[in-house]
Amino acid sequence: MADENNSQANGAGATQEAPRGLQIKRIYLKDLSYETPMGAEVFNRSWKPKIDQELNVQVNNLGESHHEVVLLMTITATMEDKVVFLVEVKQAGLFNIQGLDKAQKSQVINTTCPQILFPYAREVIDSTLSRGSFPPLMLPPINFDAVFAQAVQQVKKKGESAETPATDA
Fold it and tell me: Which of 38, 39, 68, 143 is surrounded by the fewest CB atoms within 10 Å?
């Protein structure tokens, strides 16, 4: 009797809309690589490295609304043109994104998802370097909205230049 009441209350004739927005399914470390090519020699020098950071986002569609977003970060420290350390991290997340139009979905995948993944990648980098006996490296926050807007601008410029016939001077 109780089952009949629950089934009637839960949906006889009721339509449920698919949830809108972003849902985090899982965040995980997909790949980590760490190298110290100089070995012990680096610890006998004064510590004034040049730090380079590369950043990329990779998206793997796992279905209509399921996406794997991978934040790829490469941190390279050099001194006197020698690599002190190299850390490559692929921090990934599984996200369910529903009810958004194409532009909104692209914005979420390229800005919100990497923004969620970044603190995890930063912690992995810092922890790895500490275990390698290097000082902590606190990477500054990244404005993924600005990075995405800049990428969109570059695509638009390339599209305009492709439409404009080239002239030789």
Answer: 39
